[in-house]
Amino acid sequence: VAGAGKGALSAAVKPIFSRDLGEAKQRVRELYRAWYREVPNTVHLYQLDITVKQGRNKVREMFMKNAHVTDPRVIDMLVIKGKMDLQETIQVWKQRTHVMRYFHETETPRPKDFLSKFYEGHDP
Predict the structure, then answer these.
(1) What is the DSSP string of 63-101?
(2) Where is the Complex 1 LYR protein domain (predicted)?
């Protein structure tokens, strides 16, 4: 009885854009290509201190972070957010620091315990 209700419930969930996983993957590939083509323009426009290859590697890394997602609705939401981010970048609605935030992963983690905070000079 519980299994029959579950199937009816999942069938009632309406997709955002993609009807199936294949269509969602196609949208991801289109977004990836758009970002890949935009990297040289972004590097030049924002006068970034990176090469085009580094920018494209970062795009690949950002897409691979979500490679494990298999739900078409979640994929569609990620694609929507990616398209919004791409539009903001192309239209120069971002500033240089917003774009460079993607490349600052070398920050040291903040101290968590008392002694580490003390040694760093933070208030406990």
Answers:
(1) HHTTTT---HHHHHHHHHHHHHHHHHHHTT-S-HHHHHG
(2) 26-88
User: How many Cβ atoms are within 10 Å of 75's Cβ, its own excluded?
Assistant: 21
Domain boundaries, the chain: 16-120
The predicted model scores a pTM of: 0.72
Interacting residues of 96 by C-beta distance below 8 A, sequence separation 6+? 46, 47, 48
Instruction: Identify which of 13, 5, 10, 18 has the alpha carbon closest to the alpha carbon of residue 75.
Output: 18
Residue 116: its pLDDT value, please? 80
Non-local (6+) Cβ contacts of 118 within 8 A are: 124
Are residues 40 and 60 in contact, defined by beta-carbon separation less than 8 angstroms? no
Of how many residues is the chain composed?
A: 124
